Amino acid sequence: MNTKEIARGGLLTAAAVALLYIGGTVTYIGPAACLVAGVTSAVPLLRRARLKTAVTLYLAVSILSALLVPRKIEVAAYILFCGLYPIVKFCVECYVPRRRQMDLKLAYFNIMLVIAAALAIFVFLPQFSLSGFRLLVVWVAANIVFVIYDVALSRLIALLRRSLPLD
Question: What is the mean pLDDT of each successive set of 10 residues along the chain, which is 167 residues long?
Fold first, then answer.
């Protein structure tokens, strides 16, 4: 890692933690702030595949936001999905054949959805429960939203690749 890369990682970490903090204090923008903060872990992967920087950034944001953000549900969403998914997406799209990529992405999402549901039921919202049909509807809707998010993230990454300076 050179000094430019470290400085860029620090700025991206600060921006992501600030977004998560704002999302934790202003309830209505929490999910959007979490998604935007998650995009910061994709920035080191745009031009030159700096996986080490992206993982370091993700870990730094996870630790700092766990300490600083008042609402821990945004932190959990970032740690489980929003921050880690761009890194997983990069690895899947680089190392897995094209016909298997969406299967692996959906498998990752559904595993994280099970973990998030377990956290929601046992930690954050113990009084919350869904019946069988409602659970199925929520599950299918979540998978559809994930596919839309994956396509939108791919387009955003392509736009950032075109518009950000080379280095």
Answer: 83 92 88 89 80 90 92 87 90 90 93 84 69 81 93 89 74
Going by the DSSP 8-state scheme, the letter that residue 163 receives in this structure is: H
DSSP annotation of 1 = -
Do residues 53 and 40 make contact, with C-beta atoms less than 8 angstroms apart?
no
Cα gap 25→82, rounded to integer Å:
18
Cα–Cα dist 146/22, whole Å: 24
In our burial notation (b when 16+ CB lie closer than 10 A, e otherwise), range 32-65 reads ebbbbbbbbbbbbbbeeebeebbebbbebbbebb
Nearest to 17 by CA among 75, 72, 73: 75
- 82: Cβ contacts below 8 Å, ≥ 6 apart: 34, 35, 37, 38
Cα 102 to Cα 83: distance, rounded to the nearest angstrom? 19
Distance of CA 101 to the CA centre of its chain: 18
Would you kindly state where each structural domain of the chain is located, as residue ranges?
3-163
**CA-based nearest residue to 44, from 30, 60, 68:** 60
CB burial class (10 A; 0-12, 13-18, 19+) of residue 143?
middle
